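ugh ok fine here u go
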Amino acid sequence: MQLEHKVAVITGAGSGIGQATAQLFAATGAKVVVADLDEIAGAATVDLIRASGGAATFVRVDVADPQQVDAMVSVALDRYGGIDILFNNAAMLVFGKVVDTPYATWQRVMNVNLNGVFLCCKAVIPHMLARGGGSIINMSSSTGAHDGNGNAAAYVTSKGGVTLLTRCLAIDHAQDGIRVNAIAPGPTDTPMLRGIMTPAQIDAFAATFPARRLGQPREIAQAALFLASDAASFVTGSVLAVDGGQTAQV
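structure:
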């Protein structure tokens, strides 16, 4: 599962799963475009990669902004000459029922979690076509990929959209050499999760699943590496559950 001579664009790469994936991709030979809204976090990821001998460059991007997404792609092309892998990882998590969710919040979640995937794919796919193919990995969620969940209407809806968009893209580009898959992680120990739940809440949450623990970002990154690599050459349109048995239990 080596990615030597590959160029990867990873959104939300400043922390958590995105950072772990950027480090792993670079360690296996890829040149990585670290894209994130947080400049400090994104630069820190680049520093970690370069300190280990890898190649990476940072681009500040709001994936909900078409112009910023186009600029991100231009940096990848100018710096590395093409794009082979796109990991649409940037996302935000907001709790709330429909009646409790302000419309502006609903719009922002959709713009980042779903429209951001659309915009990044739209900007990258023409360059993958010119390159003869590529791999797109979209971040879905165990909640939204196969079931719903209370008090998270915007998040679950956005991730359900990502799942079906993934399948549509896979069908549309199956003969173009572009594979499109999604990862549906279970609860994972990331700054995003710890930013909205207390340690006690996290422990209680993790105890409800078969593995009785949270996933680690590198465990999700390993799944992304498989989908990005030639080892997954006949895998497209799939939603890979990496959830410690959560899907099986549901």
